[in-house]
Amino acid sequence: MAKEFKRYLVTSALPYANGPVHIGHLAGVYIPSDIYTRYLRRRGRDVLSICGSDEHGVAITIKARKEGVSPKEIIDRYHNLIKRSFERLGMSFDIYSRTSSPVHAQTASDFFRKLYAEGKFIEKTSEQYYDEEAQQFLADRYIVGTCPHCQNEKAYGDQCEKCGSTLSPDELIAPHSALSGSPLVKRETKHWYLPLDKYEGFLREWILEGHKEWRPNVYGQCKSWLDLGLQPRAVSRDLDWGIPVPVEGAEGKVLYVWFDAPIGYISATKELTPDWERYWKDSGTKMVHFIGKDNIVFHCIVFPSMLKAHGEYILPENVPANEFLNLEGDKISTSRNWAVWLHEYLDEFPGKEDVLRYVLCANAPESKDNDFTWKDFQARNNNELVAVLGNFVNRALVLTQKYYGGEVPACGSLTDYDRETLAELQAVKATLEQNIENYRFREALKEAMNVARIGNKYLADCEPWKLVKTDPERVKTILNIALQITANLSIVVEPFMPFTAAKLLAMLRLEPLDWERIGATDLVAAGHRIGTPELLFEKIEDDVIQAQLDKLAATKEANLAAESSQNIDPQKDSISFDDFQRMDIRVSTILAAEKVAKTKKLLKLTVDTGIDRREIVSGIAEHYTPEELVGRQVLVLVNLEPRTLKGIESRGMILMGEDAAGKLVLLEPAAPVNSGAVVG
C-alpha cells in the first residue's frame, strides 16, 4: 500500500548562473517539475516548489575572466535573466532563490561545521597543480594540455571537448596554466573529504532494496556507481569564489560547488518560510527531486550521503531524472550556441508560452534521449493544438453564441451515445492521476488532450449545425454537453498549459474548478452566459519556422569557422626574402592521374610545368578521384628535391589548403594561365 504523505517538497535542479536557460533544461527538469507541482496544488495538497540559481564554482570565474568582469556581475546578469524567463513561461516556483544569498552562506557553513565537529570528514593533504606566476592552485578547468587520446592540444584538466574523453590533470601531456600560460608545478594542499564509501551499505539498502520503483535510468546508474565502489570525495577546493570553508587553517579554500549547491534547496526553503523544518525534517513530507540525468549521482548518491551524515533531514522519495533533449539531430551545447534559448523564444514567439510547454512535454526524453525539431514543433502546434484542442473549443463556444446568444442551453434527455461520451470523459481522471503520480507526464498529457478528442468526435458525430433546423431541442443537449467537456478541459490542461486554462476559464466566465470535479457534467449551469469566443491557438506558418532553421544554420556556419580558426597552425619561424626567392612555384596543368597500387592515399600525377613534363606523387587520393584532376591547373613547387615514393620518383609538390572540415583543396589560378607561369 502506497504511503500517505501530509505535505510535498518539490525541488528543481538549480540552473547554473553562467548562461541562459535552454529547451534542454526545460524538457529535462523544469516543465516536468511544474506539471507535478501544479497537479498537487490542484488537488489541494500542501506543497512547496523550490528552485534558485547555482552561483559558485569555477565555471563562473572562467566566464568572468573571459569577459573581464567580476563573478558577481556574471551571476547577477544570469540570475535575473533566468528568473524573469521562468516567470514569463509560467513556472510556479514558491521561491526562486540564489546560492549567493546570506541565508545560503550561513546554512551551508552550519551544515559543514556540524559534519566537521562530528568527525564525518577525512582531512587529507595531497599534491595539486600550482601556477607560480598567478600564485594559486588551479581548478581542473584552468589546466590545459594535450589530450592523450586524440592529441588535441587544448584539452582541459577534466575533459577533452574534441573527443569527449573524461580526464584528470595528471593525464594531460605538457599541462600548463590557462591563466598565465606558464608550466605548472605541484604543491601540497589540504582538503576535507566526505567518505562516500562509508555510506555504501546504507545506499544499497535505501536505493537498491527500498526504491525499485525508480525509473530504470536512475536505478541503473545508481547500481552501477555502487557496484564500482564509492570513494571519498573532496568537499573543499582552492578557489577565491564561493563560500569560505568555515574552519581555522582553511584560508583560500571554499566549499566545493557540488557540496554547497544542493544545500541551496534547504536555504531557499528557510528563506521562504519559518516553518521550513516541517518540510525537511518530518517523515510526513514527500520530497521529490527533478533533475537531468547528468545530476543523478549528486542527487541519489552524494546529497543523500550528506543528509544521512547530518542525521536530521529526510531523504528524497523519488528522483525522476529525464534523459537529454537534442536539437535538430545534434547535442545541445551552450559553448557552441547550439540551443533554443528560452528568453529568445519568448521574445520571438509572444503569446506562445504554452505551445513550447506542450511540445516539450509531448516530446519529453523520459526514457531515452529525444530530438527537438522546428518542423515537429510546427506540426504539433498546427495538427494538435490548433486542429484538435483549439478547433473543438472554438466550435462549442461559437455555436453557443450563434444559436443562443452565449447563454448555456439546458441539457435534455440523454441518448445512449451521450452516455457513452460522458462515460469516456469520466474515465479520464483516474488514468490522468495514475500517470502524473508515476511521473509519466507524456502519457498524462495525451490523456488530457484526449478530452478534446472526445469533444471533437462528439460534435462531428452529432452535427448540431445540421440538427438545429430539424431538432433544435436535441441541439441544446449537444451543446450543453460540449460546454461541460470544455469546462473539464480547463481543469485537465492546467498543469501542462496554464495560460490556455486561464483563457478557457475567461471565455467560459468561470472561476477555477476543483480537480475532483473532473468528469462532472454540471460545471456550467444552464442559463449561464459565456464570454466572447477567441482562438486558443493560431497556425504557425512555414516562413516562421524557416527563420529559426536559418538561425541555426548561421550558428553552425559560425561554429565551423571558429573551429577552423582554432585549428590553424601557428606561424612558422621567419625566413629571409632570399629564402623565398629560392622557391620556384609554377602554374602547371595536370595531364594524367592514376592511383598508386597498394596505397589508399597516393596518386601519381603527370603535370606540364611549362618547362617539362614530370611525375609527382601526392597524398590526395582520399580527397580527389583521378578523373576530377585531369585538366586542372595547379600550383607546383618545381625545385623541391626529388623523393622516391613506392618506386616512383616524385619531382615537386602540389600546393594545397585545408578547409574547415579537414578536406584538402587545390590552390588554382582564378583564370586560365599558361603552364610555367611563375608565382611570386
TrEMBL record:
Official protein name in the record: Methionine--tRNA ligase
Keyword Cell inner membrane: no
Cofactor(s), by name: Zn(2+)
Entry's Gene Ontology cellular component terms: cytosol
Gene Ontology molecular functions: ATP binding; metal ion binding; methionine-tRNA ligase activity; tRNA binding
Underlying gene: metG
Binding site for ATP: 334
Domain (TRNA-binding): residue spans on this chain: 579-680
